[in-house]
Amino acid sequence: MTEEHLQQDEIEGQDESQVLGAAEPSQAPPEDDRLLRLAADFENYKKRTARERQEYVALANERLIAELIPILDDLERALAAAEEHQEAQLEEGVRLVHRSLAGLLERHGVKPIETDGQFDPHVHEALLSQPSEADEGSVIDVVQKGYKLGERVVRPARVVVAAPKEEAQGADA
Question: pTM higher than 0.70, yes or no?
Answer without folding.
Answer: no
